[in-house]
């Protein structure tokens, strides 16, 4: 029995220049520790004989469980559920079913660029030294198709195959507590996302953790994130944002509507209730920089002016972190 959860997203796709048109689809970091949660980034290096990739399908092997894909602006997302062959422990709860295939659909990744497709999951019941293969299929415009689905038999070098499935080598179990730190690093949280340590105060409001991400070639918009805490006894509203390096800055929200996750513009602003903390983050509330004068570059800063209904205006600088998970490289 399989069920499908669909999420439709709007926005832009992110791409980087491709180094080798004949490279295989691989993982940016081809290892994952046993009995640990990891974030894996599938690198799609090219299209189908020059055609743009419009769909990426990844089958999850037995032993890679509790999977959660990362939404991609500009792509729809399908999570196909199915039964596991074994029972797995999830913090004391036995689990016998979960995601078995992830599909990013109706996007547009030109052959001239490459991109990454990110999944978080746990390796469980697989011994160190073993390999987990993730058969992957690219669908392209005008019926093009590339299948990376050949799984090497034990003892066979996968590089000898014409179309090897992307694979992870399972490494020994991490010391207690280290898996969460490693996952955060690979997900681009920690050092990979250099959130500002500055505390910006405006009346009763306290703004922390500001950051954005580098924009990749072909990406027309950028996101902006921070946390605001209202220490006062009066509700406030973030009504607008502006930046000298963007034509407009819009306030957006990504939220579930039935079984579909949609992005919508918040024309009435973002409420900052008294005594509460509101976080702008990827996949939730966020700023969207439109018509930027130049792509954001890692290591730089993006200036923005925030206007609150009651507190007034404040200047903020967003450090620019890398656009992809730590370790992602061209093939």
Automatic annotation (TrEMBL):
Q: Which organism is it from?
A: Neorhizobium petrolearium
Q: Which residues form the signal peptide?
A: 1-23
SUPFAM superfamilies to which the protein is assigned, alphabetical: DR1885-like metal-binding protein
Q: What is this protein called?
A: DUF1775 domain-containing protein
Locate the YncI copper-binding domain: which residues? Answer: 24-170
Superkingdom of this entry's organism? Bacteria
**Cross-referenced InterPro entries:** LpqE-like, Lxx211020-like, PCuAC_sf, UCP037139, YcnI-copper_dom, YcnI-like_sf
Keywords of the record, alphabetical order, are: Signal
Task: Enumerate the Pfam families for this protein.
Answer: DUF1775, PCuAC
Q: Which PANTHER family match?
A: BLR7088 PROTEIN, COPPER CHAPERONE PCU(A)C
